[in-house]
Amino acid sequence: MTKQKELLKRLEAEFVICADRQRAVEQQRYMKSQMPYFGVTMPEVKKITKQVLKEYVPEDNQEYRDALVYLFANAKQREVWYAGLVYAQRFTKYITEENIDVYEKIVRMTNWWDIVDLAAQNLIDAAFINNAYDRLLVTDAGKSVDESKLAPYAKNWIKDDDLWIRRTALLVQLKYKSATDFILLKKLILQAAHEKDFFMRKAIGWALRAYSYVEPQEVVSFITDNKDKLSTLSVREGLKVVKRKIQ
After folding, report:
1. Where does 75-124 have alpha helices with state H?
2. What pTM did the predictor assign?
3. Model confidence at 136: pLDDT above 80
4. Cα gap 8→186, rounded to integer Å
5. Closest-CA residue to 109 (of 165, 157, 66)
6. Which pLDDT band, with edges at 50, 70 and 90, does 141 fall under?
7. Coil, helix or strand for 193?
8. C-alpha distances in angstroms, 208 versus 65, 73, 174?
9. Shortest CA distance to 83 belongs to which of 16, 11, 172?
10. Do the domains at 1-94 and 134-247 have one common CATH topology?
11. Domain definitions of the chain by residue range
12. Phi/psi zone of residue 227: left (φ > 0), alpha (ψ -120 to 50 degrees), beta?
């Protein structure tokens, strides 16, 4: 038995012990998931996974990659996906640009917000920001003086046929604060502004709202200049923080 398969079996065995059939039904209904649940709460998933992973520390980057792909490709219950995210984040030295392709695979395999949003905000974003700020030079108001390493990825993602890859392009800078490449973000938003999908419109609003904590006037100006292109939902979400500050 491979190490990856052994890890999966261990996780499944531990989740079975804590399984709750009624909760599993409710979780699946709430998440609108075709994949069933064990019925384990997220705090329990994290606790169990962290305990199990003490025995499954990857020896190198290839093992880290192989374990992630195996867990996500072979999961039969959704908690295993959540455990995969814990695994991915646990071993921070492997969260690098080299593994962006694996994180992208996770987005494509899972195709729903509970996994995609965390992958975008805790893995893909960190893979770039962990390369230190030498990859993104910013001046006042987030104006790039050198294109970030993120840019070519995001520019491709925003054109992808997969909605969740496009959403990832919008959410990946959500925690960047003053390091946000706002020039890039504005371009991505305008490319996606025509989309009618709720998750895309929400993502646009969230991205603008996140940057408004740092540069509220920049966000207000962008929304004002493009109000005819942005959805009501995107505008409302983007201005939430600004409105609270005004009040």
Report:
1. 78-90, 100-110, 113-119
2. 0.91
3. no
4. 41
5. 165
6. very low
7. coil
8. 32, 33, 9
9. 11
10. yes
11. 1-94, 134-247
12. alpha
Residue with tokens 């640009």: 97
Enumerate long-range contacts of 114-118, CB under 8 Å, 24 or more apart. Answer: 114/31, 114/78, 115/81, 115/82, 115/85, 116/164, 116/167, 116/168, 117/167, 117/171, 118/85
CATH classification of 1-94 is 1.25.10.90, yes or no?
Answer: yes
What is the pLDDT averaged over residues 15-31? 98
Tokens describing residue 198: 């709720």
pLDDT tens, 201-216?
Answer: 999 999 999 999 999 9
CATH code reported for the domain at 134-247: 1.25.10.90
pLDDT at position 134 over 70: no
pLDDT tens digits, 169-194: 999 999 999 889 999 999 999 999 99
Question: Which pLDDT does position 173 carry in this prediction?
Answer: 95
Q: What is the pLDDT of residue 171?
A: 97
Classify 29 in phi/psi space as left (phi over 0), alpha (psi -120 to 50) or beta: alpha
What's the chain's length in residues?
Answer: 247
- 237, 180, 82, 68 alpha-carbon torsion, rounded to 10°: 150
